[in-house]
Amino acid sequence: MKKITVIGTGYVGLVSGTCFAESGNQVICCDNDERKINNLLQGGVPIYEPGLKELIEKNVKKGTLCFTSNIKQAIREAEVIYIAVGTPMSPSGEADLSFVEQVAKTIGENVNSYKVIVTKSTVPVGTGRLIESIIKQHLREDYPFDIVSNPEFLREGAAIKETLNMERAVIGTESDMAYQIISELHQPFTSTILRVSLETAEIIKYAANAFLATKISFINDIANICERVGADVTKVSEGIGLDSRIGNKFLQAGIGFGGSCFPKDTAALVHISQKCGYDFKLIKAVMETNEGQRVKIVEKLKDALGTLNGKTISVLGLAFKPDTNDIRSSPALDIIPYLSVNGATVRAFDPIAVEETKKQLGYQCLYFKDIYETLENADACLILTDWLQVKHLDLNKVKELMRQPLIVDGRNIFDLETMQEFGFTYLSIGRQPINKGTIISKAI
Ligand code: UDX
Predict the structure, then answer these.
(1) Does the interface predicted TM-score (ipTM) exceed 0.95?
(2) How far is the CA of 155 from the centre of ligand 1 (A)?
(3) What gap in Å lies between CA 99 and CA 74, rounded to an integer?
(4) CA 213 to centroid of ligand 1, rounded, Å
(5) Angle 21-23-26 (CA atoms, 0-180°, nearest 5)?
(6) Which residues form the active site (predicted)?
(7) Does domain 197-444 have CATH number 3.40.50.720?
(8) Which amino acid residue places its CA nearest to atom 9 of ligand 1?
């Protein structure tokens, strides 16, 4: 049992803190945002994540998890301090480290015994050393401490499951004692622990996200070629994914990646490479392809409708992916304003991300939690998130409700045969278009 303080109750901090409590540690989650802490103290959970609320309630009741805005006190009580504050993207694309630097200063001022200080936030290479020097500058007495980089690989929507059963833990530190402590903390979660240097751990996080983003943009480029030659990208994914060297994951073509990590971390990696004098062309191309996917889907919609002006468009999905209410860098945030500015009436559906979207887009569209109501009298339906509710749509009912049966699918949810049978005009990604039930073959 270790006494752990997690600073920052965002996605990563809250999930990690709760899982450390669940595995038998004494955890304090703290944040300087008092509103956030008061909400947590009253049983509120600021993010939607399957299983999180239940696990928080269980551990708060057991007394193994508590919340406070008194960061100084929480630092003094801890043996291990996790830094999980935000590292937002600055306008230049670089990671903004001001929150991390502020926390390092507060830690330095309040260290009162040996502490292991761990970065969980995704931080550029060299941040571990920076934290070390800030803490040293602010130490009141010469207390020993160690710095560790322990990057987070969890996916939203599966965060609890993937933390309690993680594929691997990466621990970057030069200190044997700190390694011992942090690896023991991870033993309940995984048997695969990789010990590396601080800098290597910091790069591993960026490399992992950039590689996954590259897989997505790669298959989207292939999808764009498939459309031109009359091939089917879903079969191409299957065909290449059967090769165990390639693997079948993250090869789903579509509207591209969004979320809090891939867009931010690819941009930050471009900066990291520029700073050390390397031109990382591949990642720039990955970002460019990703942005292009959003433009292409709107072009398809426009071509099919002739004009957006005066049309009613049902947008299905606001969250950047299913099982989360997170809308950060979600395609909907770019696409809805564009449709609206060009004269379309947008009716948007999402089972849980409506409130979040309203904060950002206000009344640029009408919001619905009932998927069928969204589709009433629509000239077109645009699928942006592969929610289960979309996958399970009653297509007969959809046809009856819409003014015309036109679906533009950014997630390749439906198979072409089904859409043919139902007589839809169906435009998806990397597959042949269907016009009123007839496949338009573009084979060359
Ligand atoms: C990602 C990483 O997977 C995780 O390891 C890291 O810690 C944080 O970033 P997350 O952003 O939660 O996790 O979502 P993920 O499931 O990876 O999806 C990211 C985006 O890629 C989504 O917009 C998703 O729709 C898209 N995606 C994913 C595809 O377009 N095609 C795919 O095949 C897979």
Answers:
(1) yes
(2) 7
(3) 17
(4) 8
(5) 35
(6) 261
(7) yes
(8) 261
